[in-house]
UniProtKB/TrEMBL annotation:
Coiled-coil segments: none
Highest classification ranks of the organism: Bacteria, Bacillati, Actinomycetota, Actinomycetes, Micrococcales
Domain Carboxyltransferase: start-end pairs: 28-289
Keywords, ordered alphabetically: ATP-binding, Hydrolase, Nucleotide-binding
UniProt-listed InterPro entries: CT_A_B, Cyclophilin-like_dom_sf, PxpC
Name recorded for this polypeptide: Biotin-dependent carboxylase-like uncharacterized protein
Presence of the UniProt keyword Hydrolase in the record: yes
PANTHER family attached to this UniProt entry: 5-OXOPROLINASE SUBUNIT C
Length: 289
């Protein structure tokens, strides 16, 4: 296998995982798709360095990351918006930049959003598991979480060149309230009218209980009109399950493929990237898709 260099991780921050577009189509085996939570940020970072959209990159939560390049390498950082430094000098986010042999890249805590996506030209070339290089945090499939001292191989450069951009392609996550589009869930009729009004008219915030499996929301309790148990049924990314205490949780990429709580609504696919970048305490509003 030919590698174009490597990335030696000196500090991995709160969480750094290898992610690509995941392993869809395996739910019948009990395997969720996984993959980058902010898929748009992954695709953009890869396009900025000439990679295919699904090349493996690093998903870095909350900054605190530092790594050294072994060879000349183009890279781009998208998703969360924060201070980047290459060899101690400020580097632009949402833009391709060239590291030289021995260059050190540092990502500070983000000012907006929470998940950086770091793409390198050629992709992070770790072994595939079930067709994907993504880490699934629920099942443990895929490469181990990235730790300080890890040396990550970089794949051969793609045929496409690094594109020339006339303007910055920067769309940082918002600082204020985030509006998410909702579709009716398969068990919407299990909930009282007041619960549906509360969902769209109430005040909601992201809780600290948020990871790649699901994001729990703080707000009103959502009362059911249908009691009793629900047999486990299939879930999709964005499913809003409501537990017995009436609190909703948005299921994300590493969710179980089935669940036993009723789903009142489903976050539209176009809004899921925004969920990936929400910080604890950030306000969220819902609208009909």
């Amino acid at each position: 296998m030919t590698h174009a260099g490597s990335l030696t991780v000196e500090a991995s921050g709160a969480s750094t995982l290898v992610q690509d577009l995941g392993r869809p189509g395996l739910a019948h085996l009990g395997v969720p798709a996984s993959g980058a939570l902010d898929r748009g940020a992954l695709a953009l970072a890869n396009r900025l360095v000439g990679n295919p959209d699904g090349a493996a990159a690093l998903e870095i939560v909350a900054g605190g990351f530092r790594a050294r390049f072994a060879a000349e390498t183009w890279f781009a950082v998208t998703g969360a918006w924060g201070e980047l430094r290459l060899d101690g000098r400020r580097a632009a986010p949402y833009a391709a930049a060239r590291a030289t042999p021995g260059s050190v890249l540092e990502l500070a805590a983000p000012a907006r959003g929470i998940r950086y996506l770091l793409a390198v030209r050629g992709g992070v070339d770790v072994p595939r598991v079930l067709g994907s290089r993504s880490r699934d945090t629920l099942s443990g499939l895929g490469p181990e979480p990235v730790r300080a001292g890890d040396v990550l191989p970089i794949g051969a450069p793609p045929e496409a060149s690094v594109p020339l951009l006339d303007q910055e392609a920067a769309f940082p996550p918002p600082e204020g309230p985030v509006t998410l589009a909702l579709l009716p869930g398969p068990r919407a009729d299990w909930f009282a009218d007041a619960a549906h009004r509360a969902l769209f008219d109430g005040e909601w915030r992201m809780s600290e209980q948020a990871d790649r499996i699901g994001a729990r929301l703080l707000g009103e309790t959502l009362a059911r009109r249908v009691g009793g148990e629900l047999a486990s049924e299939a879930t999709v990314p964005g499913s809003m399950q409501v537990a017995g205490d009436g609190r909703p949780t948005i299921l994300l990429a590493d969710r179980p493929v089935t669940g036993g709580y009723p789903v009142i609504a489903v976050v539209a696919a176009a809004s899921l990237d925004a969920v990936a970048q929400m910080r604890p305490g950030q306000a969220v509003r819902f609208r009909h898709a």
